């Protein structure tokens, strides 16, 4: 019969086998190519499982015995797993001509689908390698100063965009260059679709290049939408964990185009500033007598060697005590400004400005320390014949 292929080919052998099983020559001629193709696919799948078990299994056993950062990440991100999927794709692509001898159209279509599978497996492998590189970079201390997650996401977008072009070009049997030329006419649409990604990438480069923001920075936005620690900087978002443990996500271009307060300078400096006022009742200000000064030297050890020029006021002596008390505390950084100043009287009394820097900068301990200090200073005011203004 003319429609039966030569017995020397694999398809011809399958055709004869189907006829021997009772199929009519017409049905056998229709089915033999698909049966051979199915057998090739099953062979490729079996080889894929075999290689996965041997190669991936061997890498996992090696990682369990010799755990290192790179091989652990290769296993977690499934780099080799995705790469091995190229093998069955190549096998099927090469063996398909043995199946579709007569059906050239079906052969071309099947090989294009197989090529798409190979491209997809390569894309997943390259994407996994990008993530491995990101994980290794994030494990280093430098990542806090120069986060690259946004940059990696840009590479992922480019990778899958180019991969999508190749896949479409393969399916429609056109040159990728032709598709790229056609995309030039739709550049405006692409700009609109990827507007946030483009703005995010440019803003992320600005934030990193100008060292405006790092992971771990404490930032405050003036509109009150965020006040906390930067957890993550990506292509489209800056993730901030607020002090109440809520999460605020902000586009990077918002951080660039508006103002925000970064407390990193305070965290990296020698102390955190304390700037408060103690309000004294104006009616209690007076000159100290010699007996009062002697009693203060006797009762308050920090004032034992105090020798004023002339006759001081009780407010003046109190300010001297505040300064000496702060200078005696290890928690107060003596290398930074320490200022005790009397400001202009107001309807709320006479303000004494107390300005210094705490060595402890962690929020909880910082609040406790300054509270303890001002508790002491407020309680000591009556020892100098002063009353605190309470607005009554």
Task: Give the SSE layout.
Blueprint: H1 10-20, H2 25-65, H3 69-76, H4 79-84, H5 86-99, H6 104-138, H7 149-171, H8 176-183, H9 187-193, H10 195-209, E1 218-220, E2 227-233, E3 238-242, E4 247-250, H11 252-257, E5 261-262, H12 264-268, E6 272-280, H13 290-299, H14 314-327, E7 339-342, E8 350-358, H15 363-380
Antiparallel strand pairs: 1-2, 1-5, 2-3, 3-4, 6-8, 7-8
Helix pairs in contact: 1-2, 2-5, 3-6, 5-6, 6-7
Discrete helix count: 15
N-to-C SSE string, H for helix and E for strand: HHHHHHHHHHEEEEHEHEHHEEH
- The value of Rg in angstroms is 38 Å
- Compute the number of structural domains: 3
Q: How helix-rich are the residues, as a percent range?
A: 55-70%
| Largest beta-sheet details | 5 strands, antiparallel
- The number of strands is 8
Strand order of the largest sheet: 4-3-2-1-5
From the N-terminal CA to the C-terminal CA, the straight-line distance is 117 Å
User: What does the overall shape look like?
Assistant: elongated
Q: What structural class results from the helix and strand content?
A: alpha+beta
Which regions are unreliable across 5 or more consecutive residues at pLDDT < 50? 1-8
The overall pLDDT, averaged over residues, is 82
User: Beta-strand level of the residues, as a percent range?
Assistant: 5-15%
Task: Summarize the structure in words.
The longest helix has 41 residues, at 25-65. The protein has 15 helices and eight strands. Helix content is 56%, strand content 11%. Strand 2 and strand 3 (238-242) form a beta hairpin. It folds into three domains: 10-139, no CATH class; 142-152 and 164-265, Roll (SH3 type barrels), CATH 2.30.30; 269-384, Alpha-Beta Plaits (2-Layer Sandwich). With 392 residues, it is α+β, with helices and mostly antiparallel strands. The radius of gyration is 38 Å and the shape is elongated. Helix 5 (86-99) runs antiparallel to helix 6. 19% of the residues are buried. The strands form two sheets. A five-stranded antiparallel β-sheet has the order 4-3-2-1-5. A three-stranded antiparallel β-sheet has the order 6-8-7, covered by helices on one side.
């Amino acid at each position: 019969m003319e429609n039966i292929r030569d017995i020397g080919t694999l398809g011809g052998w399958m055709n004869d086998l189907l006829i021997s099983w009772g199929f009519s020559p017409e049905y056998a001629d229709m089915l033999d190519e698909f049966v051979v193709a199915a057998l090739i696919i099953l062979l490729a799948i079996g080889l894929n499982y075999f290689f996965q078990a041997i190669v991936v299994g061997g890498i996992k056993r090696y990682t369990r015995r010799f755990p290192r950062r790179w091989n652990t990440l290769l296993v977690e991100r499934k780099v080799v797993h995705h790469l091995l999927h190229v093998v069955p794709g190549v096998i099927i692509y090469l063996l398909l001509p043995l199946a579709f001898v007569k059906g050239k159209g079906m052969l071309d279509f099947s090989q294009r689908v197989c090529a798409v599978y190979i491209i997809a497996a390569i894309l997943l492998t390259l994407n996994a390698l990008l993530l491995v590189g990101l994980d290794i970079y994030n494990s280093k201390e430098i990542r806090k100063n120069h986060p690259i997650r946004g940059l990696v996401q840009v590479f992922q977008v480019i990778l899958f965009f180019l991969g999508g072009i190749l896949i479409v070009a393969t399916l429609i049997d056109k040159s990728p260059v032709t598709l790229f030329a056609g995309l030039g006419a739709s550049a405006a649409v692409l700009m609109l679709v990827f507007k946030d990604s483009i703005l995010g990438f440019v803003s992320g480069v600005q934030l990193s290049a100008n060292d405006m923001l790092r992971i771990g920075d404490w930032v405050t936005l003036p509109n009150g939408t965020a006040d906390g620690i930067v957890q993550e900087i990506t292509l489209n978002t800056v993730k901030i964990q607020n002090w109440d443990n809520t999460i605020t996500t902000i586009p990077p271009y918002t951080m660039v185009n508006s103002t925000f307060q970064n407390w990193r300078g305070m965290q990296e400096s020698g102390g955190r500033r304390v700037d408060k006022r103690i309000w004294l009742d104006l009616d209690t200000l007076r000159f100290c007598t010699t007996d009062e000064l002697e009693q203060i030297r006797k009762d308050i050890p920090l004032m034992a060697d105090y020798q004023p020029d002339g006759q001081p006021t009780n407010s003046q002596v109190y300010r001297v005590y505040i300064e000496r008390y702060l200078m005696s505390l290890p928690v107060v950084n003596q290398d930074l400004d320490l200022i005790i100043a009397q400001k202009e009287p107001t309807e709320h009394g006479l303000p004494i400005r107390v300005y210094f820097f705490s060595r402890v900068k962690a929020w909880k301990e910082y609040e406790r320390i300054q509270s303890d200090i001002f508790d002491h200073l407020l309680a000591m005011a009556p020892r100098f014949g002063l009353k605190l203004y309470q607005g009554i």
